[in-house]
What does this fold into?
Amino acid sequence: MKRKAFTLVELLVVIAIIGLLSTVATVSMSSARVKARDAQRKANLVQISKALELYYSDNGGYPSTGGIANWQGAATVYGGLADSGAGAWIPGLTPNYIASLPHDPDTNKPKVYCLGTPTVASYIYTSNVTDYKLLAYCTPESPNTSSDPMVDPARTSGVYAVYTPGARNW
It folds into this structure.
């Protein structure tokens, strides 16, 4: 007798295999997105730090925030200055040294629980003119490792940092 169609068992096996493969693909894509956003955060910090070095070369110091305790950032809890123009959250950096200050690539997480308190994830900056520290504060999604050169030595997790040697422990 010739078969003209698949049996119900054969169809269920094929559907189960397709479901399993799609689950594996979805999980691996999610992990890749997290790594890509973290790589973008690091690239943004490097881009801003290069603009800061250009500023330093022209002006003999880094843009000041009025001292190391005065953090500025795109989030309103960190000074909340505009992201571009004369009042940018890194004073005087835009548009001459960088066209506009980058934002965190994950715009869907405005509030997070980080470093023991609820906070707003953001790039933040502080400087006393001779030194600066720039953080991707509470934005990293991958666990920090001690071998990562962008891990902030003054904070245990949740932060990527770029800084001058004098600002290491701020």
User: Anything to note?
Assistant: The longest strand covers residues 67-73.
